[in-house]
Amino acid sequence: MSKLHDKLAQQIPGLRDEVKTLVKEHGAKVISQVTIEQAYGGMRGVKSLVCDTSEVPPDKGLIIRGIPVAQLTEKLPEEVLWLLLTGELPTKADVDDLKADLRKRNGVPDYIWAVLKAMPADSHPMVMLNTAILVLEKESVFRRRYDEGMKKDQYWEAALEDALNIVAMLPAVAAGIYRMRFNKGDRIASNPALDWGADYAHMLGIPDPKGEFAALMRLYLVLHSDHESGNVSAMTTATVNSALSDLYYALSAGLSGLAGPLHGLANQECLGWVLDTNKKFGGNPTKEQIKAYAEETLAAGRVIPGYGHAVLRITDPRFDAFLAFGKKHMPSDPVFQTVSNVFDTVPDILKTIQKIKDPWPNVDAGSGALLYHYGLTEFPYYTVLFSVSRALGVCSQGVIARGLGLAITRPKSVTTSWIKAQTVAPA
Ligand code: AMX
Question: What is the spatial distance between Cα 101 and Cα 8, in angstroms, rounded to a whole number?
Answer without folding.
Answer: 15
